[in-house]
Amino acid sequence: MKCPACGFPKDKVIDSRLSKDGQAIRRRRECLQCRRRYTTYEYIESSLMIVKKDGRREPFDRQKIMSGLRKACEKRPIGIDLLERLVDNIENEIQAQGHSEVQAPLIGEMVMNALQKLDGVAYVRFASVYRSFREAADFAEAAKSFAQKNEPKK
Fold it and tell me: CB within 8 A of 128, min separation 6: which ones?
């Protein structure tokens, strides 16, 4: 593990504990060169494969989901912990299905459903990339759809 501050490849583990409901190990580390401390997480490596729209297969990567969520939620009042829990829930739901492969569009839909419950702006941002919006009318339609699904019950 390289230090994020100085790049030195050696560190020592100061503290380890279970995290994310036992799904990860959180480690506090200290660089042996600059003495800076940082946190790393260890997850069980998934053997789950994602089948892309064009038929390619690639290993499941939770960081790809997290990256998309961060972009969609940029400058929104949504904490990183909430996004981590959202990704955890999606990953757990996929693994609970017991399949060794899952279609990529299913994951995209799961992310959109979660964002729709969380934040309208983030939902429209994510949908605009996921659904390849081309015109302003596409954004208006997504916003209208969000408003209809989230209007208060009478």
Answer: 138, 139, 142
Cα 93 from Cα 87, distance rounded (Å): 10
Residue 89 belongs to what H/E stretch? helix 80-96
- Which residue in 90, 80, 146, 75 sits closest to 117, CA to CA? 146
Residues belonging to the chain: 154
Helix then strand count (H, E) for the chain reads 5, 6
By three-state DSSP, how is residue 5 classified? coil
Dist CA 109 CA 105 (whole Å): 6
CA 114 distance to own-chain centroid: 11
> What are the structure tokens assigned to 40, written together?
């790393």
| pTM metric for this prediction | 0.65
User: For residue range 2-16, what is the model confidence (pLDDT) as tens digits?
Assistant: 999 999 999 999 999
Q: Sheet containing 49-51: give its strands across.
A: 57-59, 49-51, 101-103
